[in-house]
Amino acid sequence: MVDRKAGAKGKKAMVMQAILCVLCILIGAFYPTMVDWSKTAVERWAQSNGKSVEWQEARAYPFSPVSVVLIDDAFQLSIALCFVARKTGLRSLWSDKSLVLKMLPLGAIYAIGELLTLRSVQKGSGPVYVVIANMKLVVAALMSRAFFGRSVSMPWLHWFELVLISLAAAAYTLLEAGSLGTSWRWEGAWMALAKSSLVAFSSVFCEHTYKSNPFHLTLTLQAFWGLVTAVLLIAVSFSGLAFPSIAMELHDVDGGLSIFGGGSKHPLCASAAHAECELWLSRLRTIPEAGQYCNCLSARGWDTYTCFTVLADLSNAVSSALVFRQLSAVAKYVCRALSAVPMYVFYCVVGRIAFRFQTFAVVLYLCFQVSMYTKQRHKIAEVAAAKEEASWVKEYEAAAAHGSDKRS
Fold this sequence. Notes:
Elements: H1 2-37, E1 41-48, E2 53-60, H2 65-87, H3 92-95, H4 97-123, H5 126-133, H6 136-148, H7 156-180, H8 186-205, H9 207-211, H10 215-239, H11 244-249, H12 272-282, E3 291-297, H13 304-326, H14 329-338, H15 340-349, H16 357-407
Antiparallel strand pairs: 1-2, 1-3
Helix pairs in contact: 1-5, 1-13, 1-14, 2-4, 2-10, 2-13, 4-8, 4-10, 5-8, 5-15, 6-8, 7-16, 14-16, 15-16
């Protein structure tokens, strides 16, 4: 009877883990897809290769990415403050000053990570971002080895697996670059790699802060410091010290300061400024040097899809934290890695990218390799923990036996 109850409980737990894994996969695919779908404007430019000029176009954000980060963090903080006020009171946020200071770098990393995600999808695509995001395993291993030395050393086979993960991510990126041709922009891949590095840094050095403190407090403080970081980035940009493109993006068509009406620094395609540029280009007697000329945007400012992006980011932040607290570390990484598969298939079905068996095979292999590496690393960690516990028990028993001998 006891065995039957234990078996039923085990099956129920397994079903719950499977449901959470599916939810984790959907979360991993939904947010970057929604961000990619918010590129509702069209950017046009004259592409010169030094011999001829050809007009090209690509999908683009009509909004400023930093405005989305600002509103999203403000929205998250408002909801989190209401939750904290009802559960433990707002004073609990500042009761542990060390936690407030510990969450400062994590909030900054979160805000910068959001901005890098938006920039990555802006310059690249959702699938490229999701695939390169798996590089966080490689970066985390390198950081652990560099900062903690041999205490976190791995067998050479695991390093070889990390090399294979890197090669698979690079192969997918190169295949995408080849299929898109001149419209491909490497900035998207580099920014996705930068975001992976930030995630790896927080997992190596700061994961204990999330796990050892109340969930609602860490989430609220993260949103608070994230909002402060976004405001500081905007302030620094307007002061002229750094990041000039942020200040340029936060202006509307008439040149006035606007969060919701801002967008790309390029003029509208229907504007007089763009018409002048086209006229200048047409009057040139020689082909201009290789590069882009007369960039313009078809629309500027927030629209419905931008609001959906903010809601998607909010749901991603909250649901990811809740799901990951229930899933094991292995399931977390494996399920997130698997999100690349349904996302690639979805993009092919709706016609955003052309299905290529070679590319799909690389995606499947990458998911498989990430899953194998994660499972093996977790198994080694469990064995090491078991050895440490057994050693402690032996030492305790030896100490107890020595004490009893003394008493006798």
